[in-house]
Design brief:
alpha+beta, 79 residues
Length: 79
C-alpha cells in the first residue's frame, strides 16, 4: 500500500515539472552543433542551419514513468 502511494506522489511531482527554457536552448544548441559536425557546409549559412534544425521535426515527449527525466525529444522522420 505504501509503495503505491509513494509511486503516485512521485508521478504527480514529475508530471508538474515543465522543461525549463534554458534546458530547451541547451538542447537546441547541442542539436545544431551536431548538425554542423555532420554537415560542415552549413557552417557559413545560419538560415540553412535553422532550416535543417526545423526539418528534423523535434517533438518534446513528457515522461510517463517516475525514473525518466521530465521530458525528452523525439525526432519524427518524414515517411
Amino acid at each position: 500500500m505504501k509503495s503505491r502511494l509513494f509511486a503516485l506522489l512521485r508521478k504527480a511531482r514529475v508530471a508538474d515539472q515543465a522543461l525549463h527554457p534554458v534546458e530547451r536552448r541547451m538542447a537546441k544548441h547541442y542539436i545544431k552543433t551536431r548538425l554542423l559536425r555532420v554537415f560542415p557546409e552549413l557552417r557559413n549559412d545560419p538560415q540553412a542551419l535553422e532550416n535543417a534544425y526545423r526539418s528534423l521535426s523535434l517533438e518534446a515527449r513528457e515522461s510517463s514513468t517516475p525514473g525518466e527525466p521530465p521530458a525528452s525529444y523525439e525526432v519524427v522522420l518524414p515517411l
